């Protein structure tokens, strides 16, 4: 007798667990398959910086119990300057946050199976009808959802998303104690989340310090291994080397030590637009079809919003009297993604790519531009407002714009 559910979800990260939470609350039979073992979930290495803002906290009823530190400001640093914006946020304890989401889903009736690696779709008449996991185990469903992140084994085999590895960002982070978050020579990072644009430290990317209370902080960096990274990279240095270089050269880390018992947090994300997000009986969510804000990222919030859009689409498709999980009907999810999850996605992606192309001295100018244009500019840029982006553009930016156009045209 083959096992059957309304929905099978591959991956128990923020997107997969949130989707299960929403669907189980609507009384659907939901199975979540997660590669990691439950007693180690999530692995130390599979964690996130987990900075978010109050819209995510209230929108998804995230409890105080999983917050390491509430923050008052967001800070942008350049090599020689900084900009501060007052904006309340929260740095989550990522493991506890993910465990809470799983618990919420289970309380609503979702079934979780850990140590269960999804390997392939089960196809019938050219359509996905289930998944194979742990070798020869099978689970069938009316709708299958890929929430496995950049690995995306199901989306790739169904030719959905079509994301390219050369536009994938990689990142590393540690948790430290002894960080001087109020150093006289830098912005005050007490109760703040900071991103630093500086090719010397993160060529073709950015680095960060997220205060987690007292003298502790999450410290890391990421970059895309594309032409911009290659232009600014130091010979022979990998991502671990860049983090060590920053720790050695920044006086805020003179007395910093990695917190005992913690390991490196590593991750990756695509910085590119997905071709599609759904097909017959199938949707891809979270970091499988990622979107980030140009300056603050907030990938967790976006992933959970995509999960909620997929759950709403599934609820509409699985009507008891006349279920319809065709590609045409599930394309409602694509529409919701573009309107609710990632509005003005192309403009936001453009700003992200332009940022990584800019040289260090342009980052210093950006801080001055942000001060002169007002507090709302940052919010407008992250929202993909082309007029706000234009306000920050100078004639001297023409070489950056030309390089961006060349890369988009692959010439």
Automatic annotation (TrEMBL):
Organism: Haloarcula vallismortis ATCC 29715
Protein name: FAD dependent oxidoreductase
NCBIfam families hit by this protein: Dggglyphlred_Halo
UniProt cross-references to PANTHER family, sorted A to Z: DIGERANYLGERANYLGLYCEROPHOSPHOLIPID REDUCTASE (PTHR42685:SF18), GERANYLGERANYL DIPHOSPHATE REDUCTASE (PTHR42685)
Superkingdom field: Archaea
GO biological process, one term: phospholipid biosynthetic process
Keywords recorded for this protein, A-Z: FAD, Flavoprotein, Lipid biosynthesis, Lipid metabolism, Oxidoreductase, Phospholipid biosynthesis, Phospholipid metabolism
GO molecular function annotations of the record: oxidoreductase activity
Cross-referenced InterPro entries: Dggglyphlred_Halo, FAD/NAD-bd_sf, Geranylgeranyl_reductase, GGR_cat
Pfam family, one: GGR_cat
Chain ranges of the Digeranylgeranylglycerophospholipid reductase catalytic domain: 190-243
SUPFAM superfamilies listed in its UniProt record: FAD/NAD(P)-binding domain
């Amino acid at each position: 007798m083959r096992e059957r559910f309304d929905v099978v979800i591959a991956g128990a990260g923020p997107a997969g667990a949130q989707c299960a939470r929403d669907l189980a609350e609507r009384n659907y039979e939901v199975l979540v398959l997660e590669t990691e073992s439950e007693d180690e979930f999530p692995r130390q290495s599979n964690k996130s910086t987990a900075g978010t803002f109050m819209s995510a906290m209230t929108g998804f009823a995230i409890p105080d119990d999983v917050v390491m530190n509430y923050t008052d400001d967001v800070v942008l640093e350049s090599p020689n300057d900084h900009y501060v914006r007052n904006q309340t946020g929260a740095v989550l304890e990522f493991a506890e946050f993910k465990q809470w989401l799983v618990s919420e889903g289970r309380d609503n009736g979702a079934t979780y199976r850990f140590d269960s690696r999804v390997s392939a779709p089960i196809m019938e008449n050219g359509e996905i009808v289930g998944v194979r996991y742990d070798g020869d185990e099978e689970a069938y469903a009316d709708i299958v959802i890929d929430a496995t992140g950049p690995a995306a084994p199901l989306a790739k085999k169904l030719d959905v998303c079509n994301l390219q590895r050369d536009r994938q960002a990689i990142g590393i982070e540690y948790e430290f104690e002894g960080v001087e978050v109020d150093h006289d020579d830098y912005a005050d990072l007490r109760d703040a989340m900071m991103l630093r644009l500086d090719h010397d430290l993160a060529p073709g990317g950015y680095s960060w310090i997220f205060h987690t209370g007292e003298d502790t902080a999450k410290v890391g960096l990421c970059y895309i291994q594309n032409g911009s990274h290659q232009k600014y990279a130091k010979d022979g240095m990998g991502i671990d080397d860049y983090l060590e270089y920053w720790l050695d050269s920044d006086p805020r880390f003179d007395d910093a030590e990695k917190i005992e018992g913690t390991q490196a947090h590593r991750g990756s994300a695509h910085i590119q637009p997905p071709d599609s997000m759904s097909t017959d009986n199938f949707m891809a969510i979270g970091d499988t079809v990622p979107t980030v804000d140009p300056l603050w990222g907030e990938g967790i919030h976006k992933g959970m919003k995509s999960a909620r859009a997929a759950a709403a689409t599934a609820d509409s498709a699985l009507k008891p009297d006349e279920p319809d999980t065709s590609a045409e009907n599930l394309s409602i999810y694509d529409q919701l993604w573009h309107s609710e999850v990632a509005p003005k996605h192309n403009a936001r992606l453009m700003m992200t790519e332009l940022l990584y192309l800019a040289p260090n001295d342009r980052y210093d100018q950006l801080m001055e531009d942000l001060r002169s244009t007002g507090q709302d500019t940052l919010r407008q840029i992250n929202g993909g407002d082309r007029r706000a982006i234009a306000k920050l553009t100078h004639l001297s930016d023409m070489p950056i714009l030309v390089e961006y156009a060349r890369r988009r045209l692959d010439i």
